[in-house]
UniProtKB/TrEMBL annotation, chains A, B:
Source taxonomy: Eukaryota, Metazoa, Chordata, Craniata, Vertebrata
The entry's keywords: Membrane, Transmembrane, Transmembrane helix
Subcellular location: Membrane
Domain STAS stretches: 478-625
Listed name of the protein: STAS domain-containing protein
Positions of transmembrane segments: 47-73, 129-149, 203-227, 239-260, 297-316, 328-345, 365-385, 392-408, 423-454
InterPro entries: S04_transporter_CS, SLC26A/SulP_dom, SLC26A/SulP_fam, STAS_dom, STAS_dom_sf
NCBIfam families noted in UniProt: sulP (TIGR00815)
Membrane topology, record value: Multi-pass membrane protein
GO molecular function, one term: secondary active sulfate transmembrane transporter activity
Length: 653, 653
């Protein structure tokens, strides 16, 4: 028990497994370089993504410090850089705007004059901060709970095409949301379905009020950042550390803004008040929770899925393994604990993680140092960034997302490899752009899961024949050597049998074997009726209407036709022994063998569909290669009337 | 083309295929008896289910006439009785109450005195009728569209346990909604999540105001109806037609109510005004549509699914076939066209269809006659039923649903056959009772589909061996005779490979074969690092840290451990040729054969998962029995680096 407890502690606090054996001489220098480089990126991203989350910039700094610090202790990935992330921040922003829209905060001036209502920005932002924080607490709780329940696997439902379509859509939303800052236009922020369209419309209908200074500054920042990004990529190998373009933009534009008094002189929107120092912990405003539960699930799952996919890539590259459930707990703790210190939800960011890894980061120590860089700014020189123009932050956000738009290149690739996955990509993208990220994600997941059902509905089915002299049974249409036994049809269909595909299974079975119980059934009824009639008449006991039943009879009303034929005097004489032939299918099929080797499961609906069809027909249906597990024992008993073990007939590979 | 056009007309108007050949002598008498019996049931059910749909009773009569008439022309099932149905009526009622709650219709008396607000029942009912009608129009449009698009298969997503759990929940809702009529208590009707609980609470907190006369009359009706039902079932074979208990209850209770003036003298709630005659057609109030779209889908799909399942059962029993898509179009047309004549949505009712079939109904003519019975009442003697007590209708509804409660017996049956299907039943039941029928259905469908995913996640996997002297490959653990080839592992897993199970597939693969690329990868890195170090030192070129890699090494940090071991001077000397052994897995596995005979599809995520793991490892991975179709050609090309056709090694299947 002591060993187990120790193992549990080590799993829960991975730092205890690696810190004691930390090779200082080898790793420390790399980690310090990497940590400082990452910290320098954390800072401007924190400020910028706070705008996306619809909260004042300083909360982005808090979010770049507490969770990053905590991850050092709980995280198992050595290379990912947790902190603010565009998509998550945008999702939070959407919720914050929905719960605290501008329209809630118009106040009439106290003196009651005819001045129009004024937007109380401070009250609005305070409310949005409350929403973002309590959402983060909930996200943390959900992630911790999922982690403890070993539900790390939920991330697999977010298949790659879905995530890429979704993140591309998120980038579209982000760019649209930043347009107004780039142009210096003051419009409302929208949320909910079609918000993207409303936002674009609002910005462009108000484009005449754009601030030229803001626009020029923003464009200059974009061009500079794009150039730096390009250089960093081109000279990746020659540069010891990537050029920190973002921090340069922040510093230079702050300087320019301060020097030229852009805020006062040119009405350029700036970041504004950044309080120095950290805030004491406080309980989130839990009364806001009821409206946020579903959003919390969306943020929790998207956040984790981003984190784990990146962590896995780095782990594979560097030859270690990450623990999905522990990652979930780690992220959850980061979010939960930090939210008491007024942060919004975080996960790892692709761009920042690449910086951390490429600058030589070896362990979580790099992340720790990055968080300390942010801490330094928060407690010492935060106020310096007050004149920073918002347009510079918009530029940082937009250039960071250019990589995401490269995902449009997935389209031709997926077109070639898989149309279904292309459809998932498209549905995720279109639904997320039009319906918003929350509903879009839900629609995309539902669609992705339905494609699986769809795929199980189109299995390959075949009639098998025996290859003489071997134990092999092969598709008659593909293998010339395969021959059928007389009166026996061996049916193989490459899928499990359950409610969504049992009809298709039975239809394929009927078509391939040529044995259609409905027709046989109809013929049986016709025969019975005639027999009754004959018995009733007592006149011509040996004259019974019999017609050969072939699979050509497919019309709905052949029963009646048959009867009319009988009535018109077209009667045949048969002996009793011949009558029993009547129920026999064409081609004298006496047995159907269902090859169930590929059948992994069957449900009662599927079992009934098969049983029901063949119950009243004089064809023996047997099952071969049944590998359905012991949990299905009840069903197997239930099916036992038709089931025969046939290992001699068909090998179960 | 003429023939095709003719075929299309025949498909669209099935009456043209059977009416010309209608055997009058044989069928007409049975159809008349059956039609009259069914009509006599249609009538009280129409009145009663209108209460469930929250509209005045006469609309139930309209709904028992127009759609029933239309179905004669468009339907392909000869035995189902379309018309009002409890579950659908309740769903409509829920929507009507949600869109037109009591709270919207309180008006203050004009004189402004201190009398409390009065409920304007007439305005409320008019609004509810509008909602029910436009919902029905939309249901019709959706059903027609689905039918034309050949989407009849959507019904298969409503698997049997789901439908049974759902209808049981609906019965619970119905009984709860009727309690107040049975007791004569006047409470509000609730809708939305938890409405069942609110309703029960409201009724019981107001139970002191129960009307004893109403209660006694209701209970008497219940006892009588139950008795009749029991007799009908016991003496099924002896009775020429079942005793029409419902119409007896209606007639007798109307008589009693009229004779004893129950409405005035004892404050028993009665049906009230029933206008005589039909209404001229009118366009539905389309402005109400936007709020009703999702409800329409729910009603359309549930309605169709009830209809088709019953139609299929009768078709199989009587040896004909029904066309799912045409049934969908037929129901859609019934709903759409009738809605212009002020009906609410219909489908077929189990209890009525059984009456129609058991009384000898042969064709749709029986349904036609049943509708004419209702027509007669509507145009001639509808007013007669004005004194009918509501409690009698509540009794009819409740007794009709007793059969539904027998579905609780599914629980022990499903427990024995399938825990997963039991879970579906329970989720459908609990979600539908608690969240209401609309959300409940959605949750249940989502859950049912997830169970399929879950099942694909737990396939049976095995390592196969060759049975000497045969072409068969069998599970090593099950078959003693099977032997492995040296250095080759044949891995078989009974499922397709896609995003939701590829991780599990790869994990099973690693575990069963004992080849874990991560460990090999880590070992490779360690070796490289040491090699670099050695080269850098130029001191001991032949001293390289090498440790045997076994699958026991599972700790996260064995890389570091290894390095520490090296640093502590524990070095081994190996030759170059020995180093290459280093990447080899334990047991000298050189090749892994993936048996893909049961693999019906693979997506790019699954393909990448396999490829990524084994890309950098010195183990050859080959695929055998790959039957993935031509649409996957792109993927197959992409996989071709590892794929080799292995028909000689493993037979397919």
């Amino acid at each position: 028990p002591l060993l187990m407890a120790k193992a549990a502690v080590l799993t829960f606090l991975p730092i205890l497994t690696w810190l004691p054996s930390y090779p200082v001489k080898q790793y420390l220098f790399s980690d310090v370089v990497s940590g400082l480089s990452t910290g320098v990126v954390q800072l401007p991203q924190g400020l910028a993504y706070a705008m996306l989350a619809a909260v004042p910039p300083v909360y982005g700094l808090y979010s770049s410090f507490y969770p990053v610090l905590l991850y050092t202790f709980f995280g198992t990935s050595r290379h990912i850089s947790v902190g603010t992330f565009a998509v998550i921040s945008l999702m939070i922003g959407g919720v914050a705007v929905r719960e605290a829209p501008d329209s809630m905060f118009y106040t009439l001036p106290a003196n009651g004059s005819n001045i129009s209502a004024v937007l109380d920005v401070e009250a609005r932002d305070a409310k949005r901060v409350q929403v973002a924080i309590v959402l983060t607490t909930m996200v943390g709780i959900i992630q911790i709970a999922l982690g403890l329940l070993r539900f790390g696997f939920v991330a697999i439902y977010l298949t790659e095409p879905l995530v890429r379509g979704f993140t591309t859509a998120a980038s579209v939303h982000v760019v649209i949301s930043q347009l107004k800052y780039l142009l210096g236009v003051k419009t409302q922020r929208f949320s909910g379905p079609l918000s993207a369209i409303y936002s674009v419309k609002a910005v462009f209908s108000d484009i005449t009020s754009a601030n030229i200074t803001t626009l020029i500054l923003g464009l200059a920042c974009i061009v500079f950042l794009y150039g730096v990004k390009d250089i960093n990529e081109r000279f990746k190998k020659k540069l010891p550390v990537p050029i920190p373009g973002e921090i340069i933009v922040v510093i230079v534009s702050t300087g320019v803004s301060y020097g030229l008094s852009l805020s006062e002189g040119h009405k350029v929107d700036v970041v504004g008040k950044i309080p120095t120092g950290l805030l004491p912990p406080a309980a989130p405003e839990f009364s806001l929770l009821p409206n946020l539960v579903t959003d919390s699930f969306a943020v929790a799952i998207v956040g984790f899925s981003m984190g784990i996919s990146l962590a896995k890539i780095f782990a594979l590259k560097h030859g270690y393994s990450v623990d999905g459930n522990q990652e979930l707990i780690a992220l959850g703790l980061c979010n939960f604990v930090s939210s008491f210190f007024k942060t919004f939800a975080i996960t790892c960011s692709m761009s920042r993680s690449l910086v951390q890894e490429s600058t030589g980061g070896k362990t979580q120590i790099a992340g720790l140092l990055a968080s300390l860089v942010v801490l330094l700014v928060v407690v010492a020189i935060g106020f310096v960034f007050q004149p920073l123009p918002q347009t510079a932050l918009a530029a940082i956000i937009m250039v960071n997302l250019l990589g995401m738009f490269k995902q449009f290149r997935d389209i031709p690739t997926l077109w070639k490899t898989s149309k279904i996955e292309l459809a998932i990509w498209f549905v995720a993208f279109v639904a997320s752009v039009l319906l918003g990220l929350d509903y879009g994600l839900l629609v995309a997941i539902a669609f992705a899961i339905l494609t699986v059902i769809y795929r199980t509905q189109s299995p390959k089915s075949a009639i098998l024949g025996h290859v003489p002299g071997t134990g092999m049974y092969c598709d008659l249409e593909e293998y010339e050597e395969a021959v059928e036994y007389e009166g026996i049809k061996i049916f193989h269909s490459n899928s499990s049998i359950y409610f969504a595909n049992c009809d298709l299974y039975v239809n394929a079975l009927k078509k391939k074997t040529g044995v259609n119980p409905e027709h046989l059934q109809a013929a049986l009824k016709a025969r019975k009726k005639q027999k009754e009639k004959v018995n009733y008449n007592h006149a011509s006991p040996s004259k019974i209407c019999v017609k050969g039943v072939t699979s050509e009879i497919v019309s709905n009303n052949h029963l009646m036709e048959e009867q009319r034929n009988c009535q018109s005097g077209e009667v045949h004489s048969v002996s009793d022994s011949e009558q029993s032939v009547f129920l026999k299918p064409p081609g004298d099929v006496t047995s159907i063998i269902l090859d169930w080797t590929p059948v992994n499961f069957i449900d009662t609906v599927g079992a009934k569909a098969i049983k029901q069809e063949y119950a009243a027909v004089d064809v023996q249906v047997v099952i071969a290669g049944c590998s359905i597990g012991s949990t299905w024992s009840g069903l197997q008993v239930w099916l036992s009337t038709v089931a025969v073990s046939l290992e001699e007939t068909i090998p179960s590979p």
